[in-house]
Amino acid sequence: MSSGGSSSGVASKGPLRLALFGLGRAGSIHLSNIIANARIELVYIVEADQEKAEKVRARFNLKGVTLLQPKDAGVVFGDASVEACLIATPTFTHEEFVLSSLEAGKDVFCEKPIAETGEGTARCYAMAEKAGKNLFCAFNRRFDPSFRDAKERVRAGKKVLYFILLGLNSGLHLCSLNRCGRTREHDQG
């Protein structure tokens, strides 16, 4: 995949040109990482709340970044210079933005889930294969040792006791699924 001159096998054609969809909790985390990475050039931010988008632009001095409403996302898809889209919008919008991005020839990084249904997820991955583009789901806990252990135990037919960490205004709480599912009570963790 090298375009010459690079001994590492990585093309040296300049920064990756990216569109960020969504400035909620996950989108804001991604924005901080994008800004800190000299290998990425943020070209567009697609955000429904334009007041929020303007505040973010001013706070981070994003003068060269174009702000768009979701209804105008076609501008991103029509811009051949944009190589990838990062989707961090509400879940119900993921499938549409993922499919449109892939159809437009963009690689996609999408917060979980890719779509609201298994069928929608399958459509997205089928489109990625058809388009010859990467589709990555940001399921950040899949490599966590405790999650891997639980998966192996379930596949081996063993019982697994699950716990959920709930982020509440008063701090983190730990509860078992059995107790929380029935009583909605939380044990301080």
Number of domains: 2
What's the gyration radius in Å?
20 Å
Helix and strand element order = EHEHEHEHEHEHEEHE
Number of helices: 7
Look at the structure and name the CATH superfamily of the largest domain. Answer: NAD(P)-binding Rossmann-like Domain
CATH architecture label of the largest domain? 3-Layer(aba) Sandwich
- What's the pLDDT, averaged over the residues? 82
Number of strands: 9
Description:
By secondary structure, this protein is α/β, with parallel strands linked by helices. The protein folds into two domains: 123 residues, NAD(P)-binding Rossmann-like Domain (Rossmann fold), CATH 3.40.50; 44 residues, no CATH class. Helix content is 38%, strand content 23%. It contains seven helices and nine strands. The strands form two sheets. Strands 3-2-1-4-5-6 form a six-stranded parallel beta sheet, sandwiched between helices. It has a three-stranded antiparallel beta sheet with strand order 7-8-9. β5, α5 and β6 form a beta-alpha-beta unit. α4 packs parallel to α5. The chain is globular, with a radius of gyration of 20 Å. The termini are far apart. The N terminus and C terminus are likely disordered.
Can you describe this structure in just a few lines?
The chain is α/β, with parallel strands linked by helices.
Produce the secondary structure layout.
Elements lengths: L15 E6 L3 H11 L4 E7 L3 H10 L6 E3 L5 H5 L5 E4 L3 H13 L3 E5 L6 H14 L3 E4 L6 H11 L7 E6 L2 E6 H7 L3 E2 L1
Helix pairs in contact: 4-5
Task: For the structure shown, list the relevant keywords.
189 residues; alpha/beta; Rossmann fold; 2 domains; 3-stranded antiparallel sheet; 38% helix; disordered N terminus
